[in-house]
Amino acid sequence: MEKPKAVLFDAYGTLFDVYSVGLLAEQLFPGKGEALGVLWRDKQIDYTRLVTTSNHGSHYRPFWELTRAALRYACKRLALDLQSAAEDRLMNQYRHLSAFPENREVLQALKDRHVVTGILSNGDPEMLGVAVRSAGLEGLLDHVISVDSVRKFKTHPDAYALGPQVTGLDIKQIAFVSCNAWDALGATWFGYRTLWVNRYGLPFEELGTQPARTGNSLRDVLEFF
Amino acid sequence: MEKPKAVLFDAYGTLFDVYSVGLLAEQLFPGKGEALGVLWRDKQIDYTRLVTTSNHGSHYRPFWELTRAALRYACKRLALDLQSAAEDRLMNQYRHLSAFPENREVLQALKDRHVVTGILSNGDPEMLGVAVRSAGLEGLLDHVISVDSVRKFKTHPDAYALGPQVTGLDIKQIAFVSCNAWDALGATWFGYRTLWVNRYGLPFEELGTQPARTGNSLRDVLEFF
């Protein structure tokens, strides 16, 4: 099989560690940091699906707003009193999530092979810009693609269609990398050659479709080449 | 405001107790029954959204199949060895979920007021038929509407549109009742006059829209009249 000409990465959970908010959450709410981090993330994804499924874009709100809404929900659900100063601190932390340690090395290895690189993310352009700059990845990414332009979140086909549209490549020429099983599944359904990076030893989705590859680090993307 | 001419109820979680599988789950997997019940339900909803968001119907599978897939996922996630006999028992239990105790009384009160009654559910027709018969609700429901005919799950607008289509009523003449906050939100967005029955003391979704009414029992639907 022909080698991919481009690799697109999911951002949140894949390049950036969404659970790196846990430390601050634990400082603010001792004993509840981890639970808050998990519920916040689950609800954030939940909300992307809810607005996208419900009305084809008319209930769309940028990822940043849904992230804030999810934080408020998670705190209410856990009976945590979220004051606005704490909310701002947690949201600011989300803007500057830790990057996974292998990101730079893997992106550099792809650039050395003259592979087009990019992000295809639910994040809105401003969030993505800050995250990419904070992680020092600017020079290593040819494209930073946000679903914001189509006002639908992954796993909607209009979101995944941005990959071929922006790169000008055929879907079969693009590899897609995500640590989120649902995203790896959605991308595979859409037609990408997909690597699921299973960072946390989870089962894959039980919906009868498997990604082209499964690994445990972004480095495994190099096996496409 | 004019009184509703019809009331449509969500089924799973609203008329039928999705957590009533917990007892059998606990027998089969001591110490893990509650966790399995919760994760099974969460994943089931997750899968309805995933297939509906991903491809406008082409990845649709009936609720029964998604329920089985969700059970398999939940067991793998919790490292429980699900043998096929146990799977069949749990699925059979799901087919015969406990009905909430106030169902009959509330439906009867609506019939006494000459209100059209029905279910509008993600469940497929066979599942719904068995559940309705098991609960002895046949004579009290004018319509049992499954999203299966449109191959999209709530909160997709095509699913909610079945209410006016099947009853022949205007959306403003129909009250919708759900114990699931996401469903109450989706129905409100679609245009129904919605009662959210908050059985478990949870926060509502933080997406800026509130249902017309919030209560803690199906009986609260009578306040529309």
From TrEMBL, chains A, B:
GO molecular function, one term: (S)-2-haloacid dehalogenase activity
EC number: 3.8.1.2
Catalytic activity annotation: an (S)-2-haloacid + H2O = a (2R)-2-hydroxycarboxylate + a halide anion + H(+)
Pfam families recorded: Hydrolase
Enzyme class, broadest EC rank: hydrolase
Signal sequence coordinates: none
SUPFAM superfamilies xref list: HAD-like
Keyword vocabulary terms for this entry: Hydrolase
UniProt cross-references to PANTHER family, sorted A to Z: HALOACID DEHALOGENASE, TYPE II (AFU_ORTHOLOGUE AFUA_2G07750)-RELATED, HYDROLASE, HALOACID DELAHOGENASE-RELATED
Protein's job: Catalyzes the hydrolytic dehalogenation of small (S)-2-haloalkanoic acids to yield the corresponding (R)-2-hydroxyalkanoic acids.
Similarity comment text for this entry: Belongs to the HAD-like hydrolase superfamily. S-2-haloalkanoic acid dehalogenase family.
This protein's name: (S)-2-haloacid dehalogenase
Organism: Caenimonas koreensis DSM 17982
Lineage: Bacteria, Pseudomonadati, Pseudomonadota, Betaproteobacteria, Burkholderiales
